[in-house]
UniProtKB/TrEMBL annotation:
<dbReference type="GO" id="GO:0003677">
    <property type="term" value="F:DNA binding"/>
</dbReference>
<dbReference type="Pfam" id="PF00239">
    <property type="entry name" value="Resolvase"/>
</dbReference>
<protein>
    <submittedName>
        <fullName>Putative resolvase domain containing protein</fullName>
    </submittedName>
</protein>
<feature type="domain" description="Resolvase/invertase-type recombinase catalytic">
    <location>
        <begin position="48"/>
        <end position="184"/>
    </location>
</feature>
<dbReference type="GO" id="GO:0000150">
    <property type="term" value="F:DNA strand exchange activity"/>
</dbReference>
<dbReference type="InterPro" id="IPR051491">
    <property type="entry name" value="Recombinase/Transposase-rel"/>
</dbReference>
<dbReference type="InterPro" id="IPR048046">
    <property type="entry name" value="Transpos_IS607"/>
</dbReference>
<dbReference type="InterPro" id="IPR006119">
    <property type="entry name" value="Resolv_N"/>
</dbReference>
<dbReference type="InterPro" id="IPR036162">
    <property type="entry name" value="Resolvase-like_N_sf"/>
</dbReference>
Length: 184
């Protein structure tokens, strides 16, 4: 079947299907005309499912454990075999999360399962979906664009407030240390 037909049948974009062909994830042949035909595989490529859970700070560690369990339970209910459960404590705005980077660069990963889209990233989810060559499953996905926009707005305000209060706390801490040093 042609790439376009494969993309429609598997609910992926044409570019994702094309990248899967180029990376060797899909068996194919190239016709003399240059057309790429995806071969019907007797055995599908084995699923490599990753559960990804994230919290913003180590204070939320108990939530991280329960989040991981809920995602793993969801995968079990779907009949998916989970290869790894990745847990990370980092801001959703931080784009230098080593565990997430490792997942996104691993060509074996065929599926990432998350509880909410903001657990993967606060902004730019569309870019990750476009660039990731596998499937991203969001358990609690927002159906309404207005609600999604409000969640983005609240996320932005929340993260900016956290940064602002964090800076104030750091400033107070620094001032306290300076006072202690001056009093000695």
């Amino acid at each position: 079947m042609k790439i376009s037909q494969y993309a429609k049948e598997n609910s992926v974009t044409y570019m994702t299907a094309y990248r899967m062909v180029k990376s060797g994830k899909l068996p194919h042949k190239v016709l003399p005309t240059g057309t790429i035909v995806i071969l019907e595989a007797k055995e599908q490529m084995p699923d490599y499912t990753i559960c990804y859970a994230r919290v913003s700070s180590s204070q939320n560690k108990p939530n991280l454990i329960s989040q991981s369990k809920r995602i793993a339970d969801f995968c079990a209910a779907k009949g998916w075999i989970v290869k790894e459960i990745i847990e990370e404590c980092a801001s959703g705005l931080n784009d230098k999360r080593p565990k997430l980077q490792k997942i996104l660069h691993n060509p074996k990963v065929t599926r990432i399962v998350i509880e909410h889209s903001d657990r993967l990233t606060r902004f730019g989810m569309a870019y990750i979906k476009t660039l990731f060559q596998g499937e991203i499953v969001i358990i609690n996905e927002v159906e309404d664009d207005k609600i999604d926009l409000m969640q983005d707005f609240v996320s932005l305000i929340t993260s900016m407030c956290a940064r602002l209060y964090g800076q104030r706390r750091t400033k107070r801490k620094t001032e306290r240390i300076i006072k202690e040093l001056n009093s000695d």
